[in-house]
Amino acid sequence: MTDLSSTPGVIPYVDHHNGPRRLLTVEIPHLGHTVRAYAPIASVDGRQYIVTWGSVSFEIPADRNVHVSVHLQTNSGHDHTITPFASIVLSPHPAPVRLVAQFAPSQRPEGVLVPVG
Fold first, then answer.
1. What is the 8-class DSSP label of residue 110?
2. This model's pTM is above 0.85
3. What is the DSSP letter of 34?
4. Could you tell me if 42 and 26 are in contact, meaning their C-beta atoms sit under 8 angstroms apart?
């Protein structure tokens, strides 16, 4: 098994976990106007990371459920603006996983994280 936490570009899993780990890659595509209006934030088991548009990789546990979410933060709008978000619970599995975030902020705040491949 490779040491994912020392792989360039991979955000290490920072909570206590002694078991096996796997690679998670999340694609966060922008929808043109979203680059100016939103900042992407990815969360793994409740830890939030301000990330860039495009691909971001994380080291995650392979032997237990892992909660992954992405939301698009904005400072524009009204006091009760709900920002777009998507969430998934990944089941235990040894193989790497790739997700793509899909949002339609103009239609509704709920998005989806879809497994790819």
1. B
2. yes
3. H
4. yes
